[in-house]
Each structure stands twice: as structure tokens, then as C-alpha cells.
Specification:
This protein has 135 residues and is of the alpha/beta class. It has one domain: 5'-nuclease (Rossmann fold). It has nine helices and five strands. The protein has a five-stranded parallel sheet. The chain is globular and about 40 Å long.
Length: 135
């Protein structure tokens, strides 16, 4: 299953291990993100480190693995979809996720309920994925 991963999912996985982490490392799920995802992550790195139960080394190792697991796609590759994405996205800050989902013809993995306020792109939550994959 191909999914565009929302930054908040990545943040939560880095803070605590659990079902979302299991899903990320499932062989059945292929994850994609806009190129800014890890830039955003680095911006909030210290805040996440303060909240996590992981030590710094474990945190850095996890981040390295996540960068290999999540394929980032450049803005140039999604520019043909960005105008439609801006119209679809209930939150302008999420337009890049929508553009990528349109390009890949896949769902967005997000727990942000307001993203479901449109009909074109299916938004799937962690809870829904857990049920789907019986984790």
C-alpha cells in the first residue's frame, strides 16, 4: 500500500514507540513525503527530543532509518498538481501532501480529521491502518 505520510505521524513515532511505528516498518506499506518533511522535522527536533522517551542516540538512529524508509519527492515532481491540491486541501499548509497524493494516486496517512473535509483524496488514520493490517 502506498501512502503519503503526514509530519505529525512521523513526530508521534519519534516520541513514542507503538502501533504507528509498527505500521511504518511494515513491508506492506510504502511511504512517501514531500521534500520538506525532514526539514520540518529538523525545525522541531529539540521539542521532539524533550518529549521523547528515547535517548539521543536511539532517536538519531531511528531518524536515519526513517529517512531510508520514507521516500521524499521533490516539489518539481508535484508542481503539476499543486494548484488542484491547494483547492482541495482544507488547510493550506497541507497542500504539498495533497499534491503528492494526487501525483501518486494514493491516500494520505494523517490523524488530522479536518483533512477529511474534502472528497477527492482519502485520508486514513493510524487507527484505520491498525484495523486494516490487524496490528
Amino acid at each position: 500500500m502506498d501512502l503519503v505520510i503526514d509530519a505529525n505521524i512521523l513526530f508521534s513515532v519519534c516520541i513514542t514507540s507503538g502501533k504507528a511505528e509498527e505500521l511504518i516498518f511494515s513491508e506492506e506499506i510504502h511511504l512517501f513525503s514531500p521534500e520538506f518533511l525532514f526539514e520540518e522535522f529538523n525545525k522541531y527536533r529539540e521539542v521532539i527530543l524533550e518529549k521523547t522517551k528515547r535517548d539521543k542516540k536511539e532517536f538519531d538512529n531511528l531518524l536515519t532509518i526513517l529517512k531510508k524508509k520514507i521516500e521524499t519527492i521533490s516539489n518539481e515532481e508535484t508542481e503539476d498538481f499543486i494548484n488542484l491540491a491547494r483547492k482541495l486541501s482544507p488547510d493550506p499548509k497541507d497542500a504539498d501532501y495533497f499534491a503528492l497524493a494526487l501525483k501518486l494516486n494514493c491516500q494520505i496517512w494523517s490523524n488530522d480529521k479536518k483533512l477529511k473535509d474534502q472528497k477527492r483524496i482519502q485520508i486514513i488514520s493510524t487507527e484505520e491502518l491498525i484495523k486494516l493490517f490487524n496490528i
